[in-house]
Structure formats: C-alpha cells, structure tokens
C-alpha cells in the first residue's frame, strides 16, 4: 500500500491503477460511519431534550429555512419567498421539506437531515481520498479529522443551517476539481459546473466559489495549451477550440442548475443575482450597520470610497486575512491538528509540485477574497470557516500522506538495525 501520489497517472482516468476498495476498506468506512453517528446522534438527542438548545436550534435564520421548507412541503415551488427573503437559497429548505411534511417541526427529524447529509459527506470524502492516495490509512485519518471537528458537530447536531450541505457539495466539487486538473477530461469540468451550481443553491457565497473555480481552471487550461499532453496529437487551434467549447458547456450547465435561484430573482427584481441587503456588508464597517433586513441594499462602493482612506482599505484587507486564515480556524477547531496538517499539505504540494493541489490552493484563495473583505462585518466563523473546512480536509490529507511516508521510511531504516538476523 503506497502513500505517495505519483506525478504521472498510470491509467487514462488520471488516478493510479487500483483494484477498487477492498473488503477491509468497506469495513473501515462502516466503523467510521458508526463513530460519526454515535457522536452526532448523542449530541442531537441532548439538544432536543434541552429547551434552550432547541429554541436556539430552530430560531433566527433556521426559522426562515423551516418556513421555506413548509412551502416546498405543500408543493409550492414558485419561490415566492424570494420577494421577502432574497438572501436565502432553496437547496437546504428542499432537503428539509420531506422531514417537515411528515414530522413538522420535530427537532430530531429536522436534525436527522443534517445527519444524513454529513454521513454522505463522510462516505464521499473517504472513498475519494482513498482513490487519490491509494491508502485506507490516509482516508481514515482525514475522515476522523472531519468527524471530530467541533464546528461540524455543532452545525450538524445543534443547528439547522446550510453548513452541512455546503460542505458536502464542496467535497464533491473538490474531488471533481482534482480529477479534472489531472486528466483534463471535459466530463469532470461539466461535473464541476453542476456542483458549483448546487453550492450556489445552498449558500449565496457559492456564487464566488463558482466564479473562482471556473475562472482558475480556465486560466490553467490556457496555460496548459502551450504544453499538451503526450498523447494529445491535435493542433493548438483544435485544442484551443475544444477548451472554449468545454467552458461554454460548463457555463450552460451552471446556468441550468441554478435556474431555481436566478429565475425568480429576475422575475421579482429584474436582477438574477439580487440578494437583498447582503451586499451592504461589502461597504460598511459593522454587522449592525449592514444587517438592515431590507430586500434592497442601501450601500455601494461609492459610499465606502467617500468615507474611507487608502490606509483604511489596506487595513481592512490585513485584518480580514488575519481573521479568515488564522483567528477563525483557531477558535473553530480548538485543537488545531487539522489546521497545521493542512498548512503542511499546502507546503508539500508546492514543494513536490503536486499541481492539482497547487491549483486548488489558488482556487481557495480567490474565492475567499470576498469573505476576507467582509470578515469585519460578518465576524462569526460560519461563512468563512464553512467554506475553508472542506479545503482544509483535502490539504490535510496531503500532509498526512507525507508524514506517514516519512514514518515508513524511518521504520525501514530502523528495522535492520534492530533485527540484524532477519536480513
């Protein structure tokens, strides 16, 4: 069992040849699922039995998602909620709708939706990482980092928010992303566009993610045109035409998948990306100032430019980077094993020229820029860490693979010295 990802794939899929998950892998993932369920079910039951925790679980933002889910449960898919709540997206309420229809506001039933979403995330992540690294050990350690993450436990078992669905879609998107960078197969890019569309249907900042993902990949593909793959005998013009046609197809897929969000906004506001007061947070200095609750934004970049200096502009960026890349993960994780492993993974990816992870790091950096800019107006960890976490998990697996490789080499060197007769 190798722990090192090779630079040249041995199959036409870009993934090392593998006989598929073994029986031991299935047993291991089943054990991980049991650990995940035992932890989160116990937290969910505790939450449901505590009146204050239940009230918090179903209040504020969560109440709005439940109200939208009630519309869907009645068979009303006109998206009329957009008229009063244009900052909400429909995917998470759609997931809640079956539970609302049959069990109403029962916290166990509603929380079970999050449990199932998190379970799907765990399974996708485990098998995806196992295929990337050909290692049950790396996949299991990465999965345990997800299971034990206090932020995700809170959002799965104590809240009714979009973080679980957002993380699930991002995990799928990242797996497709890595596959596309390795292979260049158009089908992967179309899948990325579909996943990015679902992410936008889950959370508004998914729009940044879609733009960053497709934009970074497009630039990467233009750069790669100068260095065609060994088995690609097409002319440069043919390769260029293929790239542009593929991205046109991806843009079409993105547009189709996101119809439930942009069409009602265009119908009611004549603006397909209208999100109410959310844009206020780009141009104010506090949450209270931006959170007007209105269906129209009240501030623009002109308001910010009039009342801020160039120094204010750079100070905001500096504070945002500190918060998003250090302070928020520090408080969200408590024990920062995941954080340091992910940093190690990024360093190793660039040092070892693991290009798929290098391009992924660029994608993360760009899509976090709007979140960095607005971190002083949305100081809580939800938005920033909810997006950062899935990427952290994948970068951490690179770090874990590197550490295990070093340990294996050390063990091979030490073994002959300890047991000379075995030679």
TrEMBL record:
Localisation per UniProt entry: Cell membrane
UniProt keyword Membrane, yes or no: yes
Keyword set, alphabetical order: Cell membrane, Glycosyltransferase, Membrane, Transferase, Transmembrane, Transmembrane helix
Membrane topology: Multi-pass membrane protein
Cellular component, GO annotation: plasma membrane
GO molecular function annotations of the record: pentosyltransferase activity
Residues of the signal peptide: none
GO BP term (any one): lipopolysaccharide biosynthetic process
Superkingdom: Bacteria
Protein name: Uncharacterized protein
Organism: Chthoniobacter flavus Ellin428
